[in-house]
Amino acid sequence: MSLRIGQGYDVHAFSDDPDRPLVLGGVTVVGGPGLAGHSDADALSHAVADAVLGAVGLGDLGDHFPDTDPQWAGADSLTLLAEVVRLAAGSGWTVVNVDATVVAERPKLGALRPQMAERLATVVGAPVSVKATTHEGLGALGRGEGIACLAVALLEAP
Fold first, then answer.
1. What is the DSSP string of 12-76?
2. Buried residues in 2-18 as b, exposed as e (16+ CB within 10 A)
3. For residues 14 and 33, what is the distance between their CA atoms, to the nearest angstrom?
4. CA distance 19 to 7
5. For the chain, which has fewer Cβ within 10 Å, the N-terminal or C-terminal residue?
6. Distance between CA 43 and CA 34 in Å, rounded?
7. 64 touches 94 (CB < 8 A)
8. What is the bridge-based pairing of β-strands 94-103 and 128-133?
9. Which of 15, 157, 135 is nearest to 90 (CA)?
């Protein structure tokens, strides 16, 4: 059996559009401004997808779903993640587990972490851990200008 680890990172600024929903890990977060982006801007799902792609050596999310392609405008990031998992499986790899962290000053996400983990786990077919932290007031993230997400994925192949 072979094992590989991949890491993913994504960051998005908050959108100026007051009607844009905030989506993280496939969960719509009430009370927070949405994130700017070409798809639904789900930074957590994007970080997980990049971690899976990195473990398999298949590039990054932008290689497969470029923000210059109108076909991906407003795309559901869980759908993109499912496609990434399918690509990994096509290369002989399955996800063993994912560990992810959301870095955000606002909104508070503690109560939503289990739901995010469950949605992501359903898509990747393996356990997912979601943690949340702040940036302790430092830099753009600390000033509450956006949200960053990090993920590590372990994949195996026979």
1. EEBPS-TTPPEEETTEEETTSPPBPSSS---HHHHHHHHHHHHHHT---HHHHS-TT-GGGTT--
2. eebebebbbbbebbeee
3. 6
4. 32
5. N
6. 11
7. no
8. parallel
9. 157
**Residue in this structure with the two tokens 């927070």, named with its chain if needed:** 32
Peptide bond just before 107 cis, omega within 30 deg: yes
Among 156, 158, 153, smallest CA distance to 121 is for 153
The alpha helices in the chain, defined as continuous H runs, are 43-56, 61-64, 77-90, 113-124, 139-142
Q: 133: which 2 tokens?
A: 């932290």
Quick one: tokens of 93? 């790899």
DSSP letter (8 states) at residue 154: E
How far from the centroid of its chain's Cα atoms is residue 50's Cα? Answer: 8
Q: What SS3 class is residue 113?
A: helix
